[in-house]
Amino acid sequence: MKIIFKIFTQSLRLSFEELRSSKLRSFLSLTGITIGILCVISVRTAVNSLEKNIKDSFDTFGGDILYVQKWPIIFSDDYPWWRFYNRPQCTQKEMEMVRDKLKLAEATALVSFNGGKTVKYEDRVAEKITLTGATYQYDHIKDMEFSQGRYFTQTEADNPTYVCIIGSDIAESLFEGRTQIIGENIRLEGIQLKVIGVFKKEGNNLIGWTLDDMVMVPYSILSTFINTNGGGDGDPLMAVRPKPGIPVDELKYEVKGVMRSVRRLSPQKEDNFAINQMSLITDQISALFVFVNIAGMFIGGFSILVGGFGIANIMFVSVKERTNIIGIKKALGAKQIYILLEFLLEAIMLCMIGGAMGLILVFGLAGLANLMLQHSQSSFVFHVTAYNVSIGLSISIVIGVIAGFIPAWQASRMKPVDAIRSTSSGGSCWLPVGR
Q1: Among candidates 239, 277, 204, which has minimal Cα distance to 132?
Q2: What are phi and psi of 83, to 5 degrees?
Q3: What's CA 413's distance to the chain center, in Å?
Q4: 133 and 186 inside one domain
């Protein structure tokens, strides 16, 4: 083991010397690998970041939250859409009955989203806002942060109380420059609402759903603005969060049984409701991005291939230039493994340095892109993960071994007499330190 370590360190030192003495040749070799690693890791970073940002956007709904509604998230081909359309919507009375019967749920709430509304304050107007009606426990379903004020009390939620919580974009539009908004009255569809809270700014996301452009009111007054009796406005969601430690599948089984009981469905009848979970979407996204990653690696692989050929060509030239020196080393007793490691490590080092430069460029481009996205107030973030960094370095090592093995093997198999007689010359005459 000591001898092997000595050979390794000596070969590593000699490889550094060769890289330093042939700067132009090394630079040309590094450029190909740098571009290759830059392409591969940039594609992986972009794809992985897109996947993560999409999943994070859906995670705002809660990965462990069950949503009971009439429409499923994913449709099956053998079920006509009009049968979903004819299903009854969830009602507040149903939600209360389900909430009272569930044993495994920590919180149960009803929420409805309705877009295209207009809100006013004096002469200021905010258009295309989302009107959301929510029951009392919705703040236990979705994590909400407030820059001012609070969520509804149970009294406000259960009784027709004309109060509201507004998003940060609406607050900026209606109360520009104001630091205190709580207690002001706004008008939504001609109805006066008292502002009791302002949501903390969330920023844009890839699915376009954010609290920033939302006006939230108690579900008990939502019928003032829309038809909540199954008239086609929105699709109310009954959201259910499991208690800590309760598996979601177990809660799903209980919710299904309770819903069938509440709606008095006989065993022969099929469900007239859907139980959705955001993980269904994120699982589909993960499956899609597996193929996108493969395509990205395939495209970036061509750049790596070009870089590998460049390294192999440079190594063949290096062997040719040092043929007579190889002969002298072998005549003095240098073993084949010594010669093999010398050239193989040189190729690996070239690839690793080139790969490191490519990764530095990836970090730089990702940082620049994040600054631009932050300036545009986008929530999209490019993530250069440790896993992708390790992939970049691993690819560099593998390409170095593949590109450098044949030239290194050729050098190690040279006969001393033939190598010494060669008219080629190059570099310093390196003598083996040990046999």
Answers
A1: 239
A2: -70, -35
A3: 49
A4: yes
SS3 222: helix
Per the CB < 8 A criterion, the answer to whether 192 and 131 are in contact is: no
Task: Find, among 33, 39, 49, the residue nearest to 356 by Cα.
Answer: 33
Which token pair is 19?
């890289």
CA distance 343 to 84: 69
Cα–Cα nearest to 191, from 152, 222, 231: 222
What three-state secondary structure class fits 148?
strand
Torsion 115-116-120-125 (CA) sign: positive
Tokens 């890791």 sit on residue: 41
**Does 54 share its domain with 176?**
no
Q: Last residue of a domain, which of 272, 307, 337?
A: 272
Q: How does pLDDT run across 134-167, given as a tens digit for each residue?
A: 999 998 888 888 999 999 999 999 888 999 999 9
Q: Please state the domain count of the chain.
A: 2
User: Which amino acid is located at 53 in the chain?
Assistant: N
Residues in the chain: 435
Cα separation, 151 vs 182, whole angstroms:
12
- Same domain, yes or no: 99 and 237: yes
Residue 118 CA to residue 130 CA, distance in Å, equals 9
Q: How is residue 12 written in tokens? A: 């590593």
Last residue of a domain, one of 272, 295, 315: 272
Contact 406, 314 (CB under 8 A): no
- How many C-beta neighbours within 10 Å does residue 269 have? 10
pTM > 0.90: yes or no: no
What is the 8-class DSSP label of residue 122? T
Write down the pLDDT at residue 426: 43
Can you give the residue range of the structural domain that contains 153?
Answer: 88-272
Residue 81 lies in a domain: no
